[in-house]
Design a protein that fits this description.
With 161 residues, this protein is of the alpha+beta class. Helices cover 19% and strands 29% of the residues. The protein has four helices and nine strands, in the order H-E-H-E-E-E-E-E-E-E-E-H-H. It has a five-stranded mixed sheet.
Length: 161
Amino acid sequence: MFERGTPGADRIDALRGWVGDGGGLLMVGGYLSFTGFEGKAAYRNTALHEVLPVELLPEDDRVELPAGGRASAVGTGHPALGGVTGEWPPLLGYNRVRPRPGAEVLATLGGDPLVAVAGYGAGRSAVFTSDCSPHWAPAAFCEQWDGYARVFGGLVEWLSQ
């Protein structure tokens, strides 16, 4: 709506249709993802919300973990985790969400979904509710841990069917 103040295509609705027709979507967390900082991301109020394997909260959903929190993989046999098992390095925060009925929660952080997957129409969707870069994901997670590439590789391969 900010492009020259003229009506245009609803890109989020187009994305929903693309996933429903067989595409794959991965939503990654951050300050302006999911519901986000002061609720400003507000994806809960868009067509994208129905595609996700999780329900978004109506309020600021950020959970800061300055001392770090360790994820627990609960779906270690699922191909979307890329074969990663065992302990994950600490993360410094995430966006709190709730799993939808029928979604598979593959990893949790603070008792909330960190990685969740589901089908949508002929397609698939997944979430990684923490950051994928050095903000909530410190160097020990995104640069030094060999599981980082394996998890994101597994997610991309699973999403692409």
